[in-house]
Amino acid sequence: MTYANPDRNETINRLINPKSIAVIGASENFGKVSGRPLKHLIEKGYAGRVMPVNPKYEKIAGLTCYPSVDALPEIADLAIIALPAAQVCDCVRDLGGKGIRAAVIFSSGFGEMGEAGKALEKKLAETAEAARVILLGPNCLGFVNAFENVYATFSQYADGETGAGPIAFVTQSGAFGTAIAALIRQRGLGLGYFLNTGNQADLDFAELMMALVEDPRIKVAAGYLEGLSDGASLIRLARKCRDLGKPLILTKVGRMESGARAAASHTGALAVSDAVFDAVVRQYGVMRARNEEQMLDMMEVFCQPRRASGNGLGIATQSGGAGVMMADRAEEVGLAVPELGVKTQARLGEVMPAFGAAGNPVDVTGQFVARPELLTESVVALLDDPEIDVAIVWLQLMTAHVDALLEIFREIQERTQKPFLVCWVAAPEAAIKGLRAMEISVYPAGERAVEAAAALSRYGMLKPPGDDRVVSVINIAPEGSTGSGMQPSVEASNWLREAGVPMARVELAENEDSAVSLWRANGGPVALKIESPDIPHKTEVDGVILNVNDEDAVRSGFRMLVERTRHHMPEARLAGVLVQEMSGGHVELVVGVQRDPVFGMIVMVGFGGILVEVLKDVTFRRAPFNPNEAKAMLDELRMSAILDGVRGKPAVDREAIAALLSRLSHWASSMEPRLSELDLNPVLVGEDGPSVVDCVMIFEDRLTSMPDAGVDEPA
Amino acid sequence: MTYANPDRNETINRLINPKSIAVIGASENFGKVSGRPLKHLIEKGYAGRVMPVNPKYEKIAGLTCYPSVDALPEIADLAIIALPAAQVCDCVRDLGGKGIRAAVIFSSGFGEMGEAGKALEKKLAETAEAARVILLGPNCLGFVNAFENVYATFSQYADGETGAGPIAFVTQSGAFGTAIAALIRQRGLGLGYFLNTGNQADLDFAELMMALVEDPRIKVAAGYLEGLSDGASLIRLARKCRDLGKPLILTKVGRMESGARAAASHTGALAVSDAVFDAVVRQYGVMRARNEEQMLDMMEVFCQPRRASGNGLGIATQSGGAGVMMADRAEEVGLAVPELGVKTQARLGEVMPAFGAAGNPVDVTGQFVARPELLTESVVALLDDPEIDVAIVWLQLMTAHVDALLEIFREIQERTQKPFLVCWVAAPEAAIKGLRAMEISVYPAGERAVEAAAALSRYGMLKPPGDDRVVSVINIAPEGSTGSGMQPSVEASNWLREAGVPMARVELAENEDSAVSLWRANGGPVALKIESPDIPHKTEVDGVILNVNDEDAVRSGFRMLVERTRHHMPEARLAGVLVQEMSGGHVELVVGVQRDPVFGMIVMVGFGGILVEVLKDVTFRRAPFNPNEAKAMLDELRMSAILDGVRGKPAVDREAIAALLSRLSHWASSMEPRLSELDLNPVLVGEDGPSVVDCVMIFEDRLTSMPDAGVDEPA
Predict the structure, then answer these.
(1) Which of A219, A305, A395, A572 qualifies as a cystine partner to A166, CB 3.0-4.6 A?
(2) What is the extent of the structural domain holding B263?
(3) Complex ipTM tops 0.85
(4) Which residues 456-475 of B have a C-beta within 8 angstroms of A?
(5) A611-669 pLDDT, tens digit each
(6) How many structural domains comprise chain B?
């Protein structure tokens, strides 16, 4: 894929908004896959020229039908291919010959159908590239551009009313995507674009969405993903959406082990580790929705025009219990339910003299039916409170009072700037429609309203775009290293130290005498560790002796380590024994760098020992990142409070740990793609800051692609 | 409250199903609170006699209106009181005088309105008791018995269609309860009883529900709670529901800190610790729903007649992605998504020859529109697999194929016994109605269907009722103890040892010589600990010395502990120094007993040290319980894997820990209400089993009620 190709961008734009469409393999039976796009294009009033191609017919529904691509009277902007798989490659070649540059391929029988299908799909991609035709599909439902009435699809979705609106939705799944599109319609949110990528033989999710979000009529971008192969492209999309101020909502299936297993058998796309995916997309400001319901709830809140600038939630409710339930959920999803200011309390006291406790949640009871100002003034006062960034109003039923309530909400809307959401349980249809017509989001359940408010708050509190870019790339390349595989500890340690990572001092002793002089030079107790290019985990060969502090102990330690290693692993090549200063610290961290096949260099941090093994309390970021992002990583750890000091231990310096992580991330980036794995375990953190005690650094055996960060290749 | 009163039970039954109703304070304005019950009773066709009481009218809507309670021509089974708060007590007295034994009180202005209101409510309760009138309310919406068309309510709910059905729903909140009732109607599940308890001045949630579940027309009991004061009564209800095989679904608000704060300001009911509530209700087989949506989803699955007997979930789906999402959620909520047996795979291969991977989830694709047997045979094969206990079928839209699909589901239903649920996203209304008419549960979102299936599975896998009862109460009462407050360590230790709890051996030395001989008698290293009735936490006065193993060390240790204590806490009374055998063990647990004001004796277990402080990895059960229940507690700990051995440590004996917990629970029960608190911290667990190293036992200062377990009172 060559994204930065202006011709390609132009062709994608013409695919999405074509002035003319050829339907190859068109059928006069409008119930068939090959007939349905014609039906929709005609019935929904597509203004461009529609040209069916099929030697069987002379006309279909009054349109001239052409016997072949070659016979077409003009170069269509888009061809829809509804042919058996075996005929698709030839057709694409014909399209290229005719000068038609974009095709939507409905046909199945490609990558989703075993090895033969995969081979056919590869051939299709090559054919398309040679013919200079871009492809949506194969094995896709096609797409809808509801603004221009382009129905290049056979999806059931097109059977219903499909008014255009501010949402662009791109889905890798046809069936699930159609369901989501139908839900968007049910809610009346307005779907401007609906695209199904199918097998992504050419155009993928991110490239397509990149084109859609350029459309000023689009306010919200949403995607349903099952797999991902081009992480960089997704990150470019995320950055662009942030630059444009358009929320990007993503749902990706395959969160758990069993789900990943099912995903692996279902899709050809690479099953990226979900923990990494989750961390990286959040890092770049994507709003992740765990399922379709949450996706819709987020769409709804981002379709209303107001944004929140903090996480203070005000709740006005007709039921105290509902208020409690929403306050519970708010705490779980990162919202605060602040106590109200004195001024706000006084205002609430004026409208509700009978009720003493005018706290937050505000229980307005059902009395606002008789006294509308009770609700109006309460909500306005809430939103005027400086601690409140977004409010939720909870109601139920009220079938007889819909008009009065809509009037109340209109007044609240006029008198306030901050966003407010309505939760209306068992709401009359007229209430829902009325609120949405006013661009007020409405939810059927309290916890869902809270989750939507939390999404609004998270989005509003994202650091401004650009803040996560690399300020200056530290480019310390280990020239003269030993090449691929595990790197010698001393060199690895030196490279990292030069990059600003606080490594415990370590030297290599090739014999006892050398070990003794290194111990003397150290001037205090040392650790002795066996060094071998064949032994990444020294403890497994019993290859570490701690706290050695006299000459005899150094000498016997040296001998003992060599003997133990010969015993445990006779074939291991021995480089000598490492002599390392002893490090202290009451907090044990593990830090690592992995090269993710989708997202590149990923830095991990977590608590060491039993906590990483049993609790898996770790967190990830894509490298590089700045120290603020690194501090956010530390905050995300479930056992984060350990850093603040527990059981009488002092707090440790989070800034120093964050600096370590950020510097490491820059170094790892500059080493891409040469560095394949790096483990700093343990990193001991005491009052003097962190110290990396052990380090395993592994370079790629074979470089799978050219280095792109100015790094010298190994000899 | 005196539950076991047959007269009271009979009166409750007449309240719920009255043959005649007096409406005190009746209004001819059917829009008013005091007019609405009359309207509903007349319009919905209540068959009994309705007698309005109000000196202002001679007739209301054709019914004779009586000037006073005394003037009523017969003793009504039920009186509805719709009077101002100030007149309610007099009215209740009049009802008692007339011989009317049950009243529903709509009036507000009681416990919910500050101190004056609380006093009035107390007076109301006393008046009712003296007058032998049972009360529902005050400050309640009343109730609906939809079977007998009893509409003793002014709730908005009664405005709509209210066909009777298998659900009994009792709510402490009027507004939220009405919303839930309306949702039950929207789904067409059938609400037989709908009661709002209001302030519970007399009848509470559990006592009312106890009467409702006796009705054979009721299949599912559901409650919405905001607070709880009588835990024993709730447990009796839970046991009864299990005996009757009727699921009891509870939603209680106030799960989190901020929610609890809001609850405290909202309700007069005692804010029971949610962690304890959650553990105890699950212990007794209650199905807890976290919010109203989940409550409705559970109601729906329990309204269908089939039950699951294990946790194996089979998924048949039209979208691979939806299958993955459901498999993910299944793993999170305790369901397995097992691989299918060879036989099942062969059957699936027969119907879907084109698709190789016929795993679970089974992706039937959209082709079943043309070939219905694809769906039918797949689902039947899934349900026939011995590993599968419940299935979910995922569909979307299919507006044109509703009848065909209903026919498919009818055939599946005929050919199978196990439960299956349908998830139909963006379903046509006719599909939902058709499935519910066949008693098949249908959900609008995949994850919600999975959660419902998980509830069905959890319910089906509950241990049979009775399994959680005490087999034999160990009644070891510490006769001759020192009375209230903190108990001496040696005595406390002895009582627990006699009860079967493995305590580390400990003796009290009053002087150095005695300490030395106790050390000698121990025959190995000992711990020395200061003993004082004023010092529960010995480490806080630096009052513990470990691993003492020679005479000098014992003597100097004794002196040092006395000096340190005099330094840190000069006023503390010193009993001497404890000499305790040293215990080993690589796992550190904390075990505790608290006397919960609602549920009584609660046993807690968790991991000690940093894990209990930061992660709060603890779990609770109401005492007493058997070792199986104790093992379930260990399984619930998030760090449970530590017990299986990590980082080269051996596994510990879960049975031995479970025995400790169960024995402790029996002892704690036998000590109720005398024991107020007990901390066993740490409990060290090694290869030889657990050993309790430190124990703080506190008795009640003043007994708040008589002991009920045969325990002697302190002198």
Answers:
(1) A219
(2) 6-301
(3) yes
(4) none
(5) 777 778 889 999 999 999 999 999 999 889 999 988 778 999 999 999 999 999 999 99
(6) 4
